Every structure is written in C-alpha cells, then in structure tokens.
Amino acid sequence: VQAVATERTHAESQLAAAEPGAAEAVRELQNARDERESVNARVLAAAEPIFADFCAQLGISSLDAFERQLLPATAASDERRLQFTTQLARLDSQRAFERKQLETVEAQYSQLTLSLQSAQEALTSLQSELGAEQQQMAASVTQIELLRTELAALRRKYGDACDDVQAARHGVEQGQRELDAMSREISAKATDLARAMADRAAVLRRCKIEDIPLPLSRGSLQALPLEAGVGAESQTAEAYLSQLSLGDSTQASASMADVDMDGNDIAVDYTLLPRSVRDGNAVAIEQEYTDTLARLTAEIDALNPNPHARERLEAARVRLREIEAEHNASRQQARDAKTEFQAVRRRRHDTFMRCYNHLATAIDHAYKALTQSPLFPLGGTAYLALEDPESPYLAGVKYHAMPPLKRFRDMDQLSGGEKSVAALALLFSLQTFRPAPFFVLDEVDAALDLANVAKLANYLREHARVVPGTLASPEPPAAPGADIEVDADAEENGDPDASHYMLRQSTRAKKSDPQQSSDATAATSPVTADFQFIVISLKQALFERAHSLVGIYRDQPQNSSQVLTIDLEQFPA
Fold first, then answer.
1. 473 in helix, strand or coil?
2. What share of the chain is helix, strand, coil (3-state, %, to 5)?
C-alpha cells in the first residue's frame, strides 16, 4: 500500500508539471488551425479567377463546390478498390494454403500407401507366423494333455505309495508294540525263573550246610559259596529267556548249563530216583518226602543224640536263617529296583512313542498346509524316521522333507527357504502335541520368497486365536478370534526416535462354543489347534492382513518405553 501511495504521489507531481506544457500545446494547435483556415481561404480566392472558365464549362459554381462533389465519389472508389485488393489478397492466401494442404495430403497419402504396403507385408508375415504358432500351440496342447495324463498317473502312484508307506508304518508300529509286549512277558518270565533258581540255590546251600549227600552228575557242593551274588539269578534267567525268544534253544541251554546263579557247575543226577517219582505229581511227592523227613527226624531225636551236635546244628540253622534272610532281602531289593527300572523304562518309551507317533502324523499335515498352492494342491511331503526303533530315545530321529515336485534329498541339501518351511512345520507340529501359551517367530520369513510368505501368513491366520490380555495391548480384551502380533524394527541405526511396530491380526472365531470347537478340532486333525503368534518381520505380506497395530516408542523424559495401539478393523479394506 505504501508503494502504491508513493507511485500515486509521483504520478500526480508529474501531471502537475506537465499541465502548463499541455496548455501551451493546445494554444499552439488552435493557432495552427486558424492559420490553416486563413491560408485555405486565400488559396481559394487566388484560384477562383483562374478556374472560372473551367467551372463554367462544367456548370459548377466554384472550385470548392467541385471538390465537395468529387471527393465522396473518389473516396467510395478508393474504398471499393481497397475491398477488391483485400479480397484478392485473401483469395491468394487461401489458394496458397489450399496448395500447401494438398501437398501435405499428397505426402500423407504417399506415406500411408507405403505404410499400407509394409503393413500388408507384415500381415502376411504375421499370418505365416500365426500358422506356425498355431501348429506349435497344438503340439504344446497335445504335450500338455500327455503331461497331465502322466501327472494324473504319477499322482495315483504317489497316493498308492503314500498308502503303502502308511501301511508299512502301521505295521512297524504294530510290530514295535508286539515286541514291547513280548519284552514285558520275558521280564515277567525272567522274574519267575530267577525265583525258581534262587530256591534251587537255597536248597543246595542247605544240603551243604546240613551235610546232606546229593547225587551229582557234574560239580560239587564244596565249591558252592554260602552267600550268593545279588541279581545273578535275574541276569541268568533274563539271558536264558531272551535267547529262547530269539529261537536259539541250543544257545539258551548252553547258557543255563555253563552259567549257574553262583558261577558253579552243579547238576543233580535225577536218574537214581524211581520212575514213579520222576514222572509223578511234584506236590504229592514233595509232601511225601516231607512227611518221611519229619518221621526220620523224630526217630533220630528218640535215639541217644550227640550232646554237642544239637548246639552246632542250632548255630548252623541260625546262621542259615540269617543268610537266607539277608539273601531274600537283597533279592527282593534287586527285584524291586528292577521292577521300578522296567516301569520307568516303559513309561519313558511310552511317552516318547506317544509324542513321536503324534508328530509322525502331524508333521505331514503341517508341511502340506505350508506348501500347497493352486498349482500344487497336494503340497509337499514330510515324515520322521527312527534311527533305533527298539530304543528310540537313545538314538536320533531323522526328518525328511520333500517340497512339491522335488526329488528326495537330505535336509542339509535343501535351500534356506525350504529348510525354514520344514522347521516351521516341525515347530507347529510340536505345538499341537504340547501347546505353548504363545509363539514368538523372529524373522522366520527372512529366507522365504513372497509366495511362501503369503502361505505362511495364511497358515498363521487360519490357526491363530485371541485370548484376553493380549501382549502389548492396553485396550480391553477382544472377542474370541485369532491373534497374530507382528513386530517390525522401523529403525536399525540406533536413532532414539526409532519405533517398533507390532501388528496383531485376527480372524473371528466361530459362533459356537470355543471350548467345544477346540475339542472337536483336536479330535479331527492334529494340526488344527489354535495358537497365538507374535511375528517379528519386515515383510509387507504379514502386515497386509493385520487386525491391529501396536507402536512402541522411547519416552525420553520418562526414560522408558510407551505403547500406542490402533485397531485396523475400523478402517474398511
């Protein structure tokens, strides 16, 4: 505004300075006009006598009247001449323009003619190429049909092979269960045999202590120790029954003949007994011999005994009872320890096999779910194999994974992405057997391409669930659904304003009772249990299907971290 005011003041000052000059110019112009009128009047007065005869001939009063009559006609003629000249120039310009347009059209026509010729030549070439491509396409379609037929046959063979493998696995598991049952039966038989062998050893020791002569075909009672080794009977009996279970009766007999419970080679000669005793009822014969022994003992007591024999006999009997008590206690402790060990061993084996059998079934389902696609609806194949089926917990478990349309290779020969998918399948299978409260997956998709990342996101969304009190969320508990939290490090250069984002995505649960739905799901498939996931990732595919966003930032004044949340489901997709 100040600049405009200054400019106005300057213009007014210039106008005031120019006004005297303008007034003087107006006066000079008026003087010039007056002088011109006076000059014209003098010229007409001087020319009128000269042109008097001319005016008389023409019949005009004066030269001034003649000029007034002639000037309009001349002006009209000049105007018509100007219009004609202008029209002629316009027509010349239009003719030149039309000529140029004609030349341009002719040039364009020539160019279009050349283009048409080249297009016709190209069309002819393309038609020939189209015919060749159609023939090639027909051959490709025929080859595709053949490949589809071969693929269908291979799929049928693959299904048959899978059925055979499954049947073989069931057969191996059935054999393993039968072997376990046989092992338990052998252990029971070994315990009974050990008890019988211990009783035989006790009888032999008693015969030695009481100086009872026995007909022996091999060995001597003098070399028999009064105290037996603890557990020797059980070891000998177990080895004997194990060899019998393997069908080697000769070796079993040799073991029983060569190794006695106390290491002595003692064999009783039963041929001196009557055939009726050898072939009779053992219980009745034992009762008969017991009665006979009692009768003979009473007759001996009725005779005049040795005064010191009874004391020695009583001392020997006391010593024998003590030894037998110690022996029986030790043998009972050994049997109890062995029974407890066998129970722990069976429980360990059963626990391991229960987990292994569950994983052997679940691992294939999980791997197929992570690898199947519209192009490969069957997905890949994964299975477990025990290195030692008899004692699986003492050896390793081999894990084999075959991606879709890939040949069999060892795990260490797979790519990084294939190993990641196989590891995730094993992890999710373990979750179905012994569920954890939640999962934390730290950049497990680093080695995966976009297609496999999308498959992983779909799997997480299908198997995720929401529970009250979700981590890193100060909002009220959400309705039952699926919960996936994705954490992405926004800044990795140590910037104090760097933010961490956790993305929680959900799918709504079914309207039925969640507990009943979970029970029914667990009963139908071992890999459909609902999990909770916290996924740390920088891939966009895991964020696109999010339920909510959680931001964690550093609060410098408080010297702590703060959390921001936003529910993404309130925004339309």
1. coil
2. 65, 10, 25
- What one-letter code names the amino acid at 519? D
Greatest alpha-carbon pair distance for the chain in Å reads 223
Helices (H) and strands (E) in the chain, counts: 12, 10
Kindly report the three-state secondary structure assignment for every residue of 12-67. Answer: HHHHHHHHHHHHHHHHHHHHHHHHHHHHHHHHHHHHCCCCHHHHHHHCCCCHHHHH
CA-CA-CA-CA torsion sign (568, 570, 571, 573): positive
209 alpha carbon, distance to own chain's centre: 76
For 279-330, what is each residue's pLDDT tens digit? 777 778 878 888 888 888 777 766 656 666 677 778 888 888 888 889 889 9
Half-sphere exposure at residue 18, Cβ-oriented, CA atoms within 13 angstroms: 6
- What token pair was written down for 88? 């002629």
Residue 171 CB neighbours (<10 A): 10
Closest CA to 156 of 378, 367, 372, 373: 378
Which 3 state secondary structure label does DSSP give 273? Answer: coil
From CA 365, how far away is CA 524, in angstroms rounded?
A: 12
Tokens 């030695």 -> residue: 208
User: For residue 217, how many other CB atoms are within 10 A of its CB?
Assistant: 10
Q: Measured between alpha carbons, how far is 197 from 288 in angstroms, rounded to an integer?
A: 23
Select from 385, 367, 360, 354 the least CA-distant residue to 423.
367
CA dihedral sign of residues 106, 108, 114, 119: negative
Going by pLDDT thresholds of 50, 70 and 90, the confidence category of residue 236 is low
H or E, element range at 162? helix 63-209
Residue 506: band (very low, low, confident or very high) from pLDDT cuts 50, 70, 90? very low
| CB contact at 8 A, 255 and 263 | no
H or E stretch at 278: helix 275-279
